[in-house]
Amino acid sequence: MVSQFLKLEWKSLYRSASFGKSIGIKIFMGLFALYFIVMFLGAGLVLYPGLKKEFPDQEPIYILNNVLFYWILIDLVFRFFFQKLPVMVVKPLLILPVKRSKVVNYVLRKSALSFFNFLPLFAIVPFGITLLVKNYPVVSVLSWMLAVVLTTLIINFLNFIIESFSAETEFSFLPVVIFTGGLYALNHFDLVSFNTIVGAGFNAVYENPIYVLAPLLILVGLYIYNGKLLKQKLFLDSGLKTKVKEVKASNLEWTKNFGDIAPFLRLDLKLIWRNKRTKSSVWMLAMGLLYGLVFYPNPQFKNFEGIYVFVGIFSTGIFLINFGQFIPAWDSAYYKLLMSQNLKYEQYLKSKFTLMAISVGVLFLLGIPYVFFGWKILVAHFAAAIYNVGVNTHVILLGGSFNRKKIDLSQKAAFNYQGTGAVQWLIGIPLLLLPMGIFSLAFFTIGFEVACAIIAVLGIIGVVFHKQFMKAITAKYLQSKYKMIDAFDQDN
Amino acid sequence: MISTINLSKKYGGKQVLNVEALDIPKGQSFGLVGNNGAGKTTYFSLLLDLIKPTTGHIINNKVKVNESENWKPFTSAFIDESFLIGYLTPEEYFYFIGELRGQNKADVDALVSQFEDFFHGEILGQKKYLRDLSKGNQKKAGIVAALIGNPEVVILDEPFANLDPTTQIRLKAIVKDLAETKGVTVLISSHDLLHVTDVCERIVVLEKGEIVKDLETSEATLKELEAHFTN
């Protein structure tokens, strides 16, 4: 039976329409994984000699045990964003003679084979071998290693429980933030000293191998609980069909002021507010807006004005980037309708442009408090906002005409790569790096004021030639009409 | 109204449609039947300029559809669910289509209210998004949306599939009325021979992309079609 499941999954993998298409993302992820493997391997090798050298009078393993708590927290956060829930198409299986518990067990056990569970081994094994070579007691070292592996699996299953709660909330990363943040805070303010508790636990396992039963029991408990959660979802009416909330129809009458683009503007606003994926990218606005706080309070960046324009472009353009890069894929589900309707492509694109331009203005106004860190920041942000309206909106609309990937609006946004292709990575270059490059060049050769002026003037030029740009962009969209219809028709 | 000239469509060397000539006069209710893969949806997609013809072209009311967009104001269609906007309520969807076709709210309301029977109280005022309606109800909304703005050509792909018997009967009345009293050219494809002979004045049978039969509907048509599809 398990081999049947494996066959199904293999087929779903290499027969999927996007197989081989998203090579760029896979290479990126591969490099990412390789980087972590090397890091962990390196850590595993230098851990023993390094700790021995720094703290000659302490046992390296005890020091390590004391910081394992932080590793657990970081691992949880990382997994939340990068590890995919073990999913399987269960609907066709439900009426076949397959026991539900079998499906559940298979899905859960498969998740144990995740890359994230193997990663710690790259550090633990060399560290353990070093210990054995240095004549530490064999049983103790082995049971300690076993305990770490069990902990990895505990994190694995804990993550799924957290994810199953996130699936039900709008703001999907709230549960993991609350959970890990809460644990960290309790520990940090010495209310409950988790790092000592965790450390003492691992010390105990090392000293008395019988205690390895404790993580084992926790793991079994989590496994059973996960199984229960999953089993509940294996019914059509719970997991596969979602509740239907009563909705309030709205007219958005005020959009009438925008004239002939009003119907599209209304449609876009509803699109953003009524779908999971777009709605959660609204929350990203807050992140973008606060992005400056990473740099500006930091004295290191005090005299590094080159960063101002970068932050300015990013924080006033976060909506533009988030929303704009998936034009027209947002409308992919009903693109055929739009194409056979009596509509002017130009109005459709102009509505998107207007929305992005307004967002830049609003985000600039909201970012005015940054003036607290110096007037130069405000000036740079203002120039960046003009650049965003004049140049970046057009660039991103043009990039959209190369868009060939459909988007499922009901999925959450963070780290969702659906609809992402090479275009989305490449478009970042003109969007962010180009203005930053121009600015830095002018800044270092002439001065801050001139650099800001150049960025602003580029933006103004873009605004002046808006009509011509839009004509060219519209032509580009019309050119790729058939290709887009065909691509949006395919499930990826 | 609609003339098809030397139209063909190939996908990777495989011919899926090849129609030398097909003329559909104004006000005709036209039925397209054929087994799966016969080319019905391909023909409709070509008529709506959603795919590119390999050779030939279609002229819709003097407009060459793959060269000009001027056929759009008087042509409307419902092909499949991808013609619906899932996150709108049916009313919002009707108004949106109405706006694109130059109709104000009152116009749309007036038109939609004629279909209250057809909706059977399951579409209007439900406070649900289209994506949350059942397949049949989605179809009802899509078909009615295709009638907004007094189109002269209405294209419906498999309109009877997924509909309950009551609605199927009502839909037949609507289609007949469109062609007979309003002079609308209606193009329908269907797998249901009975429905299509009931509704359409003319039925064309496609087989592997080619026209094999072109019939004026009469008493004998249903028998003839059944005989054709039996072997």
TrEMBL record, chain A:
The question of whether Cell wall biogenesis/degradation is a record keyword is answered with no
State if Membrane is listed as a keyword. Answer: yes
Keywords from the UniProt entry:
Membrane, Transmembrane, Transmembrane helix
Q: Which domain of life is it from?
A: Bacteria
| InterPro entries membership | DUF5687 (IPR043742)
Residue ranges of the TM segments? 23-48, 68-90, 111-133, 139-159, 171-189, 209-225, 280-296, 308-330, 351-372, 378-402, 414-433, 439-465
Name used for this protein in its record? Membrane protein
Species per Swiss-Prot/TrEMBL record? Neotamlana sedimentorum
From TrEMBL, chain B:
Give every ABC transporter domain span: 2-230
List the Gene3D superfamilies hit by this protein, alphabetically: P-loop containing nucleotide triphosphate hydrolases (3.40.50.300)
| Taxonomy of the source species | Bacteria, Pseudomonadati, Bacteroidota, Flavobacteriia, Flavobacteriales
Key word Protein biosynthesis present: no
Question: Which SUPFAM superfamilies does the record associate with it?
Answer: P-loop containing nucleoside triphosphate hydrolases
Q: Which UniProt keywords apply?
A: ATP-binding, Nucleotide-binding, Transport
CDD domains named in the record: ABC_DR_subfamily_A
InterPro entries per record: AAA+_ATPase, ABC_transporter-like_ATP-bd, ABC_transporter-like_CS, ABC_Transporter_VariousFunc, P-loop_NTPase
Question: What is this protein's name?
Answer: ATP-binding protein
Q: Which domain of life is it from?
A: Bacteria
Q: Does the keyword Transport apply?
A: yes
Recorded source organism is Neotamlana sedimentorum
Instruction: Give GO terms: molecular function aspect only.
Output: ATP binding; ATP hydrolysis activity
